[in-house]
Design a protein that fits this description.
mainly beta, 4-stranded antiparallel beta sheet
Length: 155
């Protein structure tokens, strides 16, 4: 049978808890919240199960280093770090779950960097990176605590 729609969250604008041109969704490990990637608003929002904004990653209306431009994919690493494919800037940014920018992976930080098409985290903690012709498997060089302190990067 078909499921029953029990609620609708968000609306077609750009304020906190409001959504515009969503392209990806992840449920949080706590089962009480979820993450939504918005292409047009160039951000990722963490929302409660009732749609209240808990945090926001990125800001298209800023020249700050945490701004995003056309993000197209994201994943959550160890329930603590959110990696966002910032396609418009050809980089991957990583944030705490509260929205603090921790760093980036790009040509500036790695001369061999190639912009991937998607990311996923495996159960062992490896980061799977989808490129046009292959999948790269990375074992993080640093612990989550080291990454959160700004002294390491996920890949």
């Amino acid at each position: 049978t078909n499921g029953t729609l029990v609620g609708v969250l968000g609306s077609n604008v750009n304020g906190p808890g409001q959504l515009l041109n969503t392209i990806d969704l992840l449920a949080d490990a706590d089962g009480q919240s979820f993450w939504v990637l918005e292409l047009s608003n160039s951000r990722v929002q963490h929302l409660s199960s009732n749609g209240t904004g808990l945090s926001r990653l990125g800001d298209a209306n800023s020249n700050a280093s945490n701004n995003l431009l056309n993000p197209t994919f994201f994943c959550i690493y160890s329930n603590a770090i959110v990696l966002v494919g910032d396609t418009g800037h050809s980089r991957i940014q990583w944030y705490t779950t509260t929205g603090v920018l921790l760093g980036e992976w790009s040509k500036k930080t790695d001369a061999g960097f190639v912009m991937p098409n998607d990311l996923a985290v495996g159960p062992s903690g490896n980061l799977y990176v989808l490129y046009s012709t292959y999948v790269g498997v990375y074992r993080p060089r640093k612990s989550v605590a080291e990454i959160q302190s700004g002294s390491g990067s996920p890949p």
